[in-house]
Amino acid sequence: MEHNVFTRFCDLAYDKAGIYLREGKEALVATRVAKRVKALGLDGERAYLEYLEKDATGDELVAFLDAVTTNYTFFFREPEHFDIQAQLMKRWAAQGPRPYRIWCAASSTGEEPYAIAMTAREAVGEDVDLRILATDLSTRVLATARAGVYGADRLEKASKEVVRKYFKRAPDNARGERVYSVTPEVREHLVFKRLNLSKPPFPMKGPFDLVFCRNVMMYFDLTVRQRLVNDIERLMGPESVLFIGRSETLGGLKTNLVALSAATYCWPDNPLLEGGRIGGK
Ligand SMILES: C[S@@+](CC[C@H](N)C(=O)[O-])C[C@H]1O[C@@H](n2cnc3c(N)ncnc32)[C@H](O)[C@@H]1O
């Protein structure tokens, strides 16, 4: 790919979604862009760039951002966070009935927010007053998430009991593979919305008891991460907890949040930091 074409794709990804591509990402951008070039029947990357820049509807920008983002996820990824979620919700439930509001930012194809709902029901029971806001930039992954139908490979980290309770076998997919559908009881806790994490302030008022913002900050530079964390802080109540990806860090950011457990953060006066320490398996 010509260097100036690559640079313009990078600028677009950064300006519109905070996604920092740059050095070493030429091959990735070329492969992803090639799919759009083919889908539109255009004559190469430069022609696609011009098409993208001229498209006043914004539809191709959505498709471009869909193409350059990585959506890898599966049910109960980084399982220690679901253990912590269960422990927290059990403690809160022991103080009496209450609503639970959870934000799953960068929810991708839905495995993460559905797993959060399943964990909540297992921890505090099926009558739980639970609402989960699941957001992502990509319209393509949001459509998959709303459909809530998954191949068996995505469920490998789910216990047999969870699969039995919260999934129904659906007709095999077009490739003849076994697929499972999330049950309506779980789905009713979730709302899926498109939200760009690089453009705070977000329209939500909060507070959220738990915020899952995992495996997305790694695509952002320090400036975008700082803006994002500032607005997450605004949406956290005194006892709220933030989960980020195990390979991510809040290091280098201005924040008063402190580590509660691995990749798990709370405010410094959270009582859990004294005595009642909490942690994943
Ligand atoms: C690797 S997936 C992480 C999924 C899930 N949180 C997990 O940990 O398994 C990253 C997700 O971030 C989304 N994403 C990337 N840039 C974004 C942005 N600016 N705003 C919102 N979501 C974004 C992508 O569409 C993708 O679905």
Mean pLDDT over all positions: 94
Helix/strand order: HHHHHEHEHEHEEHEEHEEE
Number of separate domains: 2
Spatial extent as radius of gyration? 20 Å
- Biggest sheet details: 7 strands, mixed
Can you identify the CATH class of the largest domain?
Alpha Beta
Bound molecules: S-adenosylmethionine
Q: Roughly how much helix do the residues carry, as a percent range?
A: 25-40%
Strand order of the largest sheet: 6-2-1-7-8-10-9
CATH topology of the largest domain: Rossmann fold
Number of helices: 10
CATH architecture of the largest domain: 3-Layer(aba) Sandwich
| Number of DSSP strand runs | 10
The backbone outline, from C-alpha atoms, is: globular
In CATH, what is the homologous superfamily of the largest domain? Vaccinia Virus protein VP39
Q: Beta-strand percentage?
A: 15-25%
| Head-to-tail CA distance between termini | 46 Å
Summarize the structure.
The chain has ten helices and ten strands.
Protein traits:
281 residues, alpha/beta, Chemotaxis Receptor Methyltransferase Cher, domain 1, Rossmann fold, 2 domains, seven-stranded mixed beta sheet, three-stranded antiparallel beta sheet, binds S-adenosylmethionine
Task: Tell me what you see in this structure.
It is a single chain. 40% of the residues lie in helices and 19% in strands. The chain has 281 residues and is an alpha/beta fold. The strands form 2 sheets. It has a 7-stranded mixed sheet with strand order 6-2-1-7-8-10-9. Helix 5 (80-94) runs parallel beside helix 6 (111-124). It has helices at residues 3-17, 26-40, 45-54, 59-68, 80-94, 111-124, 139-147, 160-166, 184-187, 222-234; strands at residues 99-105, 129-136, 149-151, 167-170, 179-182, 190-194, 208-213, 236-244, 258-261, 264-266. The protein is globular. The chain folds into 2 domains: 3-68, Chemotaxis Receptor Methyltransferase Cher, domain 1, CATH 1.10.155.10; 80-273, Rossmann fold (3-Layer(aba) Sandwich), CATH 3.40.50. The model has no long low-confidence stretch (mean pLDDT 94). The chain starts with a helix and ends in a 15-residue tail after the last strand. The structure holds S-adenosylmethionine. The site of S-adenosylmethionine (SAM) has 24 residues, from loops.
